[in-house]
Amino acid sequence: MKPIDWREVGSEVVAPLYAAERARWIQELDWDSAMNWVLIEATRAQGALPGYLVLDQSGAVAGWAFYFLHEQVLQIGGLTGRTTSVARSLLDVIMRSPEAALAKDVSCFVLPDQPASAAFVQRRFDAQRFLYLRRSTDTVQSVSSTSEASEAPAPLLTETTRFKSWNTSDDAPDTVRLFATAYAESAAARCFAAGRGLDGWVHYVKQLIRTPACGLLLPTASFTARASDGALQGVVLTTSIGPRSAHVAQLVVDPAYARQGIGRRLLEAASAAAASEGRRNMTLLVSEDNAKAQALYTSAGFERRSEFLFGWRDRPIPRSAAA
Questions:
Q1: How do strand 281-287 and strand 245-253 relate by DSSP bridges?
Q2: Structural domains of the chain, ranges and CATH numbers in brackets
């Protein structure tokens, strides 16, 4: 089996691959990724998104993956293979690409039941597990989500905090800085902001609010918490991932305001707003290593539904490793 450039095949070859992935995400995650595949196919058809297919002896697709380079990080998507050897061959050919020669880091997200996870180990990727949690919005506590809620209930907060709807023009710059601060010591940062420093977080926030990469932003279910002096204490950005489900794309509290109940209030405000729009489920991702966040979500009624595996290498695999 030999990988072939997927830009050289017609849409009739890749359409079933997209459909299978979409169906799997709906079944396992309550996440309809249809819009993502539309954008991916449009970019592939234009020749702007490189990728490979592996065909078996009968000509059927045994595995596939696409990739792109951003901020010297080679990001691999859609890595799928019937066997570990197929997934490994896809990683190897991608690592021999011109884009890989320009990369300093390599990253990839997969559902861990795939042979891709074993290929990660064989090709010396570091792996970080993220738990995919879900709860029914029927369990949402009654929390005010109005834009002018001025006070949170004592004794959770030690100072007056205003909870307001998140606004792109007013809140995006502060949100970038908050993410950079909150994730400064976290290994999870590299799976969100692929680039270095603030530029990486700027790109990430733009993706959240402008593209369906993590669902479509739900402004009505996204909120900020600000101190009386205007300092951004916390933010929750919520997206739509289907007609029944909303997703907490980010829930971040400034470490200086930790343990004051801000994260819980933001989570409940987002959930209540999503429920009012008919969303039956609320989902989120949390690092397996983040015990504090897991405790918050468990106490709020979230349960484990699935998981993702994030693979990372500090540098591309040497060409000799693919021999």
A1: parallel
A2: 3-123 (3.40.630.30), 133-306 (3.40.630.30)
